[in-house]
Amino acid sequence: MAGTLILVRHGESEWNLKNLFTGWKNPDLTDKGVGEARAAGQKIKAAGMTPTVFYTSALRRAQHSLDLILEELGIVNLVITRDQALNERDYGDLSGLNKDDARSKWGEEQVLIWRRSYDVPPPGGESLKDTVARALPYFVQEILPRVLRGDRVLISAHGNSLRALIMVLERLTPAAILKRELATGVPIVYRLNADSTVASQLDLAA
Questions:
Q1: Which of the residues 92, 135, 156, 182 has an alpha carbon 20 to 30 A from that of 43?
Q2: Active-site hit among 10, 64, 126, 158
């Protein structure tokens, strides 16, 4: 056994609540999101999986979630690595739009293609394939070596940047990863073998 990787999607954001496309825009957490992040920290603590290495994106909602998780774990005076490689998928011209308004402007079918296809980006934005191409090299070069050295690594990030990692970890097809839902504030724990394959997976949802 090499090490442990814990993935957490940030708690509910203000724009999640308003049903807006968020992408690289920078809203903070709602009160519910704060509670979800704290609960994630409590679940990690209860499972006895206190992390030792910490990564997050360049966006406030993921950073705030990590801060709250660490507060619940009682961890202070640590180094946190923040990198935009772990940012949410960039929704381009859709960013800031209500999803219903986007459907009215472009049509339900077109918006569904942008949201649920693997390689069709919205205008000015990224597809999930583009997000994989951004996030995966960073994971392989910067994060995976820490896990393989035996560290317990926590990543607080976003639905689509985490999907990019999960796709590789779980060996999912492009079609399968599009159906993979990630709840806000629910830690997913992977124990990795020395060859970087997954030895076990556990969702701390309860």
A1: 135
A2: 10
- In terms of DSSP bridges, do strands 53-56 and 188-192 run parallel, antiparallel, or are they unpaired? unpaired
Q: Is 10 a catalytic residue?
A: yes
CA distances to 56, 164, 167, 197 from 177, rounded to whole Å, are 21, 8, 6, 18
The alpha carbon of residue 144 and the mean position of all alpha carbons in its chain are separated, in whole angstroms, by 16
CATH classification of 3-203, choosing from 3.30.70.260, 3.40.50.2300, 3.40.50.1240, 3.30.465.60?
Answer: 3.40.50.1240
Structure-block tokens of residue 27: 């809203």
Write the DSSP assignment of 109-147 as a string of letters. Answer: HHHHHHHH-SS-PPTTS--HHHHHHHHHHHIIIIIHHHH
Q: Which of 12, 36, 64, 88 is an active site residue?
A: 88
The tens digit of pLDDT for each residue in 123-146 reads 999 999 999 999 999 999 999 999
Task: State yes or no: is 88 an active-site residue.
Answer: yes
Q: Are 186 and 9 in contact (CB under 8 A)?
A: yes
Helix (H, G, I), strand (E, B) or coil at 78: coil
Instruction: Give yes or no for residue 2 having a pLDDT over 90.
Output: no
Q: How far apart are CA 206 and CA 39, in angstroms?
A: 10
Closest-CA residue to 10 (of 22, 81, 18, 95): 22
Cα–Cα distance between 42 and 164 in angstroms, integer?
A: 26
Q: pLDDT tens for residues 6-42?
A: 999 999 999 999 999 999 999 999 999 999 999 999 9
